[in-house]
Design brief:
CATH class of the largest domain: Alpha Beta
Radius of gyration: 19 Å
Shape: globular
Strand content: 15-25%
Length: 290
């Protein structure tokens, strides 16, 4: 049986480490890190994610500010709010929760965020620092994946790593991190890749971030591979009170017996995204020295 990678436990460990650091700041009479969150509209999952981030701030002792705007907010006005946060010395870092309404360009908005306060790690400057020897604020979910591998002492150097999904949010940055920091041999697959299973069967470490439930089946996985499932999709489940359940990109039940390590959904990579956000906020705070 595989070792199940417990993202909840590792996230809890990280929060306890951060809380200890915050307690130290308070004992020294210093201010504590301050995270701001912007959310536009009433997308239910987004509000659930935001509430999780607020609760995490409370757990570690961070200050937080929530700015909630109507779906009708214009891109111009959103950028004005971003500019205010950029200039506010009381704010160490902030995020703009996505998705945004269709009339607002996520890419345009992200580039208005000051890189030193971009704790989601989405700006071009922070993204580009992945390939440097001096990392800035790294994309949160890939950062969390790398932290899981490190804390479970999973060796990456010289390993064959296959990343399925080439998105700006996860696939592309994690492939660069595995190449740069993990020193693995990396193959990136995407929707135009021919014969996906040909590639996935070669993977010592398989990272999947597509958003297609059960895309990866047992015949696509090498025995004793490390499986990192980033997919989180709501699928109908009439047996549950909510009417749905969360499904990963990996057919967990049938793939798990073949794996050496595997992340569950939920409870694997998901909790690490918030933990990484907190780590980035602490890093931004310490870099500012205000």
């Amino acid at each position: 049986m595989p070792t199940v990678i417990d993202g909840r436990k590792i996230s809890k460990d990280i929060k306890e480490e951060i809380a200890h650091r915050v307690d130290g700041l308070k004992a020294e009479g210093k201010r504590v890190p301050h995270l701001a969150i912007i959310i536009v509209g009433d997308d239910a999952p987004s509000h659930t994610y935001v509430n999780g981030k607020i609760n995490a701030c409370k757990e570690v002792g961070f200050e937080y500010t929530l700015l909630h705007f109507a779906n009708s907010l214009s891109e111009e006005k959103l950028i004005k709010h971003i500019t205010k946060l950029n200039e506010d010395d009381d704010i160490d870092g902030f995020i703009v929760q996505i998705p945004l309404p269709d009339h607002i360009s996520v890419e345009h908005v992200n580039e208005k965020i000051s890189p030193d306060k971009d704790v989601d790690g989405f700006t071009n400057q922070n993204f580009g620092s992945i390939t440097s020897t001096h990392h800035l604020l790294l994309p949160a979910t890939p950062f969390g994946i790398m932290e899981l591998l490190k804390r479970y002492e999973i060796k990456t150097k010289g390993k064959e790593c296959v990343v399925v999904g080439a998105s700006r949010l996860v696939g592309s940055p994690v492939s660069l991190m595995m190449l740069q920091d993990g020193m693995a041999t990396v193959t990136v697959c995407h929707e135009f890749t021919k014969d996906l299973s040909k590639h996935t069967r070669q993977a010592d470490i398989l990272i999947v971030a597509v958003g297609k439930p059960n895309l990866i089946t047992k015949d696509m996985v090498k025995k004793n591979a490390v499986i990192i499932d980033v997919g989180t999709t709501r699928v109908e489940d009439k047996t549950r009170k909510s009417g749905f359940r969360l499904s990963g990109d990996v057919d967990y039940e049938n793939v798990a017996p073949l794996a050496s390590y595997i992340t569950p959904v939920p409870g694997g990579v998901g909790p690490m995204t918030i933990a990484s956000l907190l780590l980035n906020t602490l890093k931004a705070y310490e870099a500012r020295k205000i």
